[in-house]
Structure formats: C-alpha cells, structure tokens
Specification:
This protein is α+β, with helices and mostly antiparallel strands and 326 residues long. It contains 9 helices and 10 strands. Strand 2, helix 3 and strand 3 form a beta-alpha-beta unit. Helix 2 packs parallel to helix 3 and helix 4 packs across helix 5.
Length: 326
C-alpha cells in the first residue's frame, strides 16, 4: 500500500528506516520476503511470545515525541517478556500511519528503536505498514527461556511473600500534570512527565525466575494486576507503609489535598514487577536485586481471605480496577 503524503511509500519506509533494525539476521531475509523464521541456537531454550498495541489518544497524545512512542511500544512488551523470566530475542512491528507522519517522524522513531534494541539485545524480525486515521502501533515480541523453567502469573501458596520492584504511581502523576489536573515546581513536573513519556522495563525477572512462584508486570495498576494474579483463589494483605513511593511522589502527596495514595494504587504504566514467592527466598531475591541496582520492596503476603486487604486506612471501594474498555 502506498503512503502518498510527503512522497512516502512502503518501500521507502522499509529500506530507509527499518532495514537497519533487522541487524542483517538471516531469518529476516532482509525484509525481502513476506515472512521470516526464528531459530534458537541453544536447544536447551524455548521461545516465549507476547503482543501489545498502543493507540493515539488512548496511550499517547498525537503531539508526543516519536521517541516516546517507540519507548512505550517496546517497554510494554519487554516488561511482559521479563515477567515471564525470559530474555528478549526479536520482535514484529506493525504501524498504522496517519497522513501527517513524515520522514522526520520516522527517522526519530526508528533511531530510538535502534537505541533500545542495542540496550536490551533484540532485533526487528519484520512487520507491516498501512494507512490509518490515527496512529496505532502494535508489536509482537519473542523471548527465550530455559526449557525446564516456567514462570506463571497465578501460581501461589498461602503465606507467600508479595514483593514489587520500583516505585508506584510516577507515570500517573506525569499524566495528571500533562492533563493540567495539578502542577508542582518545574523540576518535579519535568521528572514525572519523563516517567510518563519514557517508561522502562524491569530486567530483574530472568535473574530471579528460579526463585519465584509467580511474576507479573505492573501495567494496569498494582491492585488490578495483583487481583489478576490472585485469580479468586486467595487474598492479599498489604502493608500500606511498605508500598514504595519515591521521595518526589511523597512531596506531591503532601501538597495535593485531593490526590492521595489511593489514586496511585491502580494507575497503569509503572512497569515494575509483582513477585510472589516463598518467604524462604525473600533474602535471595532482595540480594540479587541489590546486586543489579534494582529497587525491590516486600509489601505483604498471601492470605486465605479472598480479595485485597490493607492494614491501614485505605478503602478499597475508592479504588477501581483498571479496564481497557472503561
């Protein structure tokens, strides 16, 4: 399909902006076939797969920097790969492009993808281009993991630890600032906006995969994702004071009277990990995280009473589980 705006065409876009991302891997056929193949050199490993999409006016604004859009589509997928205990291998990329997209946009977008690929060690396998009224980016990521290793999202036992990586709610605060719901000083504003525009995945998953029962990334909010992990079988008791909030987030909560920790517990796009594991593995997990300069916090445990419960003032009635269709 030809993209007539700004003299763009499918062939030009592929040759000029995306062939550099296949790293000349044999299975890509240098994007001259309609398909590709994957081959794992180590027979002791198997492939994992995940897919996600982001859309204009839902996951990003139409004026957002293309670098930010590249960051988001890779982070949302890499986060799932790492939560499976796998390492990224390659990916497919589908772009639905509106007519205002030009070569400057494509150059910035593809260069950011190349930068991310180098950082995390994967390559572009292929994909598809088409026109659209709005910008939609979808991607399917492949990872590799040892054949004997499987990490589930809802395998848990009574009294298991609940740990999470990173800090909660920073992307949410950045979004609220961009929406002009509230504001702070310039330095804090810039910090939180960057957290919203340029999220990063947590690489701890593959390092601790053999020490956990379950893992899931925090993409739809701590409460929503933890609820999915519990799967109606058990409950969770959360220590409110142990929920990790950055110093900058605490400053926001101290000055915004109508914005409390409840507003952060189900905010999406944090991309840390929820880790459920036996108490006997707690020190090992924390040690591995510290060795890799990754923040990890013990926040509670699995209990028999179904649902999510807090040891403090928080009222669950005020926390709505995130839903993509609400």
């Amino acid at each position: 399909m030809k993209l007539i705006k700004n003299n763009l065409s499918e062939k030009l876009i592929i040759n000029k902006y995306f062939k550099k991302l296949n790293l000349k891997k044999k299975g890509t056929f240098n994007f001259e076939n309609d398909g590709a193949y994957l081959e794992l050199k180590n027979k002791n490993y198997k492939l994992t797969v995940t897919t996600d999409s982001i859309s204009e006016d839902i996951d990003f604004f139409n004026h957002d920097d293309p670098k930010s859009i590249a960051q988001k589509i890779t982070t949302v997928n890499l986060s799932d790969i790492y939560a499976m205990g796998a390492l990224p291998h390659s990916y497919l990329l589908n772009l639905h492009l509106p007519k205002h997209i030009n070569e400057n946009w494509l150059n910035s977008f593809s260069n950011q993808l190349k930068k991310i690929q180098r950082k995390y060690g994967f390559y572009l396998l292929g994909g598809d281009l088409s026109q659209s009224n709005k910008l939609i980016v979808s991607s399917t990521f492949f990872g590799s993991i040892k054949k004997k290793l499987e990490v589930f999202q809802n395998k848990l036992n009574l009294h298991d630890d609940i740990l999470i990586t990173g800090s909660i709610g920073e992307s949410k605060i950045g979004l609220e600032i961009l929406k002009k719901k509230f504001s702070s000083n310039i330095i804090l504003n810039q910090y939180f906006i960057q957290k919203y525009l340029y999220p990063t995945p947590c690489k701890l998953g593959p390092l601790i995969a053999s020490h956990v029962n379950s893992m899931k990334d925090i993409s739809d909010g701590l409460i929503g994702d933890l609820t999915d992990m519990l799967n109606g079988k058990y409950g969770a008791l959360i220590n409110v004071n142990k929920i990790p909030l950055s110093v900058k987030t605490k400053k926001i909560l101290n000055v915004q009277n109508n914005f409390r920790i409840e507003n952060l517990l189900n905010s999406g796009d944090d991309y840390g990990l929820i880790i459920i594991s036996s108490k006997k593995n707690r020190n090992k997990i924390i040690s591995i995280a510290n060795e890799n300069d990754i923040k990890v916090s013990y926040i509670g445990k699995i209990i028999s009473e179904k649902g999510i419960h807090f040891d403090s003032y928080i009222d669950m009635k005020n926390i709505k589980k995130f839903d993509h269709f609400c």
